[in-house]
Amino acid sequence: MSASEEDLAPWSAARTLADLAEVTARWLQGELRYFPGHNDPSEPPLAETKDLIKVLVSLNRAGYLTTNSQPGQSMTRDGNAQRAFVRGYCTEDTYKRIDAAIYGTELIALPRPPGMYHLCPVPITTVGGKNFTWGGMSTGEADAIAREFGGALSESMLDVLTTCWLVDVLDPVWGRTNLLWSKLRAGLAG
């Protein structure tokens, strides 16, 4: 399915981090039917995201533009497992709040300040007993951001995002479901 002008309008109209985070929150809540960076842009969030929607909406509205997330999932007999994980863009101040929120826990933040393109891969999903997806693999380069949002953002919005911190937060304990979300919610949206 190709995107209609109506589908793209909210994304291309965003000019600030807060604008784009609000559009993302609206998509998470089902108010918009299209997310240009989603696996299938015309489908709602994945079923595994259902229990995370409220916290993701609150994180977006608190200044952490979430672009990827997953709940923790304990190892299955088939060797499938997930670490709780979230990726997003934010200001340095918001990153400091994230860092403070997870201080003293086992949670790990993988921050990339603007202009830093170092990749630090950490497995976050296993399928069939093999590493399948990784945190710490995205960069804040304009081309990577444009691909992540399916080319739907304006040049000015891309410019804003290149000045943001790209921060992945993950729980190193496979299958743990609540620690990451409760700490981030309390630290950012509390």
Q: Could you explain how this protein is built, in words?
A:
- By secondary structure, the chain is α+β, with helices and mostly antiparallel strands.
- The protein is built from seven helices and seven strands; from the N terminus they run H-H-H-E-E-E-H-E-E-E-H-H-E-H.
- The strands form two sheets. A four-stranded antiparallel sheet has the order 1-3-7-4.
- Helix 2 packs antiparallel against helix 3 and helix 4 crosses helix 7.
- The radius of gyration is 16 Å and the shape is globular.
- The termini are far apart.
Notable characteristics:
three-stranded antiparallel β-sheet; alpha+beta; four-stranded antiparallel β-sheet
List the helices and strands and how they pair.
Layout: H1 5-13, H2 17-28, H3 53-61, E1 65-70, E2 81-82, E3 85-90, H4 92-102, E4 108-112, E5 122-127, E6 130-135, H5 142-148, H6 155-162, E7 165-170, H7 179-189
Helix pairs in contact: 2-3, 3-7, 4-7
Short description:
By secondary structure, the protein is an alpha+beta fold.
Helicity level, as a percent range? 25-40%
> What would you report as the Rg, rounded to the nearest angstrom?
16 Å
What's the mean pLDDT score?
A: 92
- Point out poorly predicted stretches: none
